[in-house]
Each structure stands twice: as structure tokens, then as C-alpha cells.
């Protein structure tokens, strides 16, 4: 079975990707900043699934660290057959009065790192004639949730463009577009989600299972759950003025000075 490299593997969707891929008997390369969490997870995966789990500690907002991960993707020994670009962050701030350094860090993590790692992975996979790249975007890519939406919109369009370029190479590119998912994401971003009903939430297990099934069938866009597929369709068809008005309504409804909570 192919080796899978997962960024943001220590928590949230990345953690679930690691478990589902390991139990499917894929060796894994676990990438995140938290060495203690990664080391513990690697030991658990190896013991439970009998696979090989490599630990690669990296801060993907730092270009030198991104290059180390890119080098692993280019390696011919134990080649990576699936790249999961999952690492992300929620800033919970408005852009204009916000901390620009935090914005630059988020841009590096969710845009530049995705581009660099996708380039490295595709460059190694195409000559082999097989492989897959899964980039985690979001339903927020179709909305106006601050710079997070902008970053995820870039990921979505980039992945679609990459899929076109990779056609007939044996390598695929898929953009995962989840909505709200029960993970640590919003808690880590200190984003208050108490106003959102349970029906708005997805389980990480279902999101990851859907994403991996869509990768196997070569789908370019993967949007888990009927309700978020319907929301995505409505956002694509609605005039952009209506989408912007919805964003303003959400912010006013929450009574907050920060951006509306990020989706996915």
C-alpha cells in the first residue's frame, strides 16, 4: 500500500486521516509542530495497525520547514503516494484592525505551503504514473468569512486547476470542502461556536471517510453531507451581492467585532 503524508496530523481532521489511512494499512508520514503528540500518535498507529509511522516535526508557516517536508515528498525511498494538505488555522480577527503578522502566518500555512507541497508531490508522482493529492479547502471558500475564505477559495481553485493539468497522468487532485466539523479547530482558534445548532455539525470520521472514497474514485471536489452540498450549490448560484449580505448578517447576528466563524 502507498505511503500517505498528512500535514496537521496531530489533531482534528489530520488525526482522523492518520487513523483511517493506518487502519487501511497505509504507512504514514505525520507532519505537525507538536513533537510530543506526533510521537505518541505514531506509536499508537504502529501498535494498533501494524504499519510504519514516520514523524516529521515542522512548522509549515516557516519556509525552511516546508522545504524539509517537500524533500520527503520528493524522496524515492518509501515514496509518498498520497499527500493530504490539511494543516490550517482560524484567526478570529477582522482584517483591518487585526494583527498583520498573524495574517501572513496564516497565508503561508494555508496557501504557500499547499502550493509548495503540491508541486513537490506532483513532481514525484507524475513520473511514476500514480498518486493522489488531497487539499483541504472549505465550504467557506464560497462565502465571505474574512481572509480564511480567501485562503480556502485559493485552495479550491488551485486544486481544480491542478486536476486539469494532471489529467491522463495517473495522478489526481481533490479539494475537500467540509462545513463545521467537531474537532479542536474552533477551540484552538478561540472561536465561540455556541450559537450554531448541532445539525450544522459533521463528524470528523464521516468527513474523512467521504474524502478518501472521493480520492479513490478520482473526484476533483469532495463536499461531505447533503446539507453542505446544498449550501454550496446555493452559494455558487446566488449573486455575490447576496453572499456578501449573508456575511454581514452573520456578523451582526453574532454581535462580535471579529470575523464570522470559519467553516471547515
TrEMBL record:
It comes from the Bacteria. One of its GO terms (molecular function) is oxidoreductase activity. Keywords: Oxidoreductase. Belongs to the short-chain dehydrogenases/reductases (SDR) family. This is Short-chain dehydrogenase. The lineage of its organism: Bacteria, Bacillati, Actinomycetota, Actinomycetes, Micrococcales.
